[in-house]
Amino acid sequence: MLCVVRNALGELTAKLGFSEAECRAVVLAVDEALTNIIRHAYLGDHEQFIEASFRRIHLPRDDKSEDALEIVLEDSGVTANPEKMCGRALEDVKPGGLGMHFIRQSMDTVEFTRSNGRNQLRMVKILHRQTAQKGS
Amino acid sequence: MQIAARHFDTTTIFDISGDIDLATSPVLRKALLHELRELKMPRVVLNLGAVRYIDSSGVASLVEGLKASRDVGSRFILFGLNKTVREVLQLSKLLKIFEIYESEEQSVAP
C-alpha cells in the first residue's frame, strides 16, 4: 500500500504548488516515516492501523505568513526509540539507518511525541513559491 | 518492482523497473547476493533506468550488494540513474562509493 500513498501524495504536493524536487522530497519523507512505523512501532506487521492527516497551514514569519504542508502520522505501536531514530553516521557505509536522515533532510520540521499510548510524528514542509516571471 | 537478469560469460546485468521499497527491496537483495556470493560473478551490473522510486531499504540493498562484491572481488556497477535515484543516492552521500556509468555499453566495457 505504500505505493498508493506515494502516488496520492505526489499529486497533492504538486497541486499545492511544490516544485518537482520538493514533491519528491515530501514523498520520500512520508514513505520513510511509514516504513519506520511498520518496522519499529509495529515490529514488521503490515496490517496495523496508521492514521495520517495532511493539512495546509499558515506559519507566521516576520510580518508575513508562509504556506506550508503539515503531515501528522499516528500509530499505536511500541514506543518510538529516539536512539534508533537518530540514524547512523553517513560516513559509516553500511546498510540501514538512512530513513531518519532522509526525513530530516527532506522536511523543515520533524517532531516526535508520545501520548495516550500513541506515537505521533509531525512533519512540516514550507511552500516556497516560484517567483512569477514579469509579464506572465 | 520487476527484475530480470541477463547472463553473459563474466557479467550479469539486472534490468530493474518500478519501485524499490520496503516490500520489494528484499527481492533485489536476494538476487544480488545470489549472483555475488553464490555464483561469484566477476561483474554485476544494475540497469536502473526504469526505476521510478527507491527508498532507504532499496539503498541498503545496493550497499549490501556493493559490500558482497568487495568480499568476493567482483565489480558492482550501476547505470542509467534517473533524477529520482540520483537524488536519493546523493541525499545518502553514497553516490561516490558506487561505480556508476551512463550507459550499458560503458558498464560492460573491458
CATH topology of chain A: Heat Shock Protein 90
DSSP summary, beta strand count of chain A: 4
Given helix and strand content, the structural type of chain A is alpha+beta
Runs of chain A in which pLDDT lies below 50 for 5 or more consecutive residues are 132-136
Helix content of chain A: 25-40%
* H-E string of chain A: HHEEHHEE
Amount of beta strand of chain A: 25-35%
Contiguous low-pLDDT stretches of chain B (5 residues minimum) are none
* Structural class by sheet pairing and helices of chain B: alpha/beta
Strand portion of chain B, in percent? 25-35%
CATH superfamily grouping of chain B: STAS domain
Annotation, overall tally of beta strands of chain B: 5
Tell me the number of structural domains of chain A.
1
Task: Quote the average pLDDT of chain A.
Answer: 86
Q: Judging by the overall fold, what is the CATH architecture of chain B?
A: 2-Layer Sandwich
Annotation field: number of helices of chain B: 4
Largest interface: pair, residues per side:
A-B, 24 and 22 residues
CATH class assignment of chain B: Alpha Beta
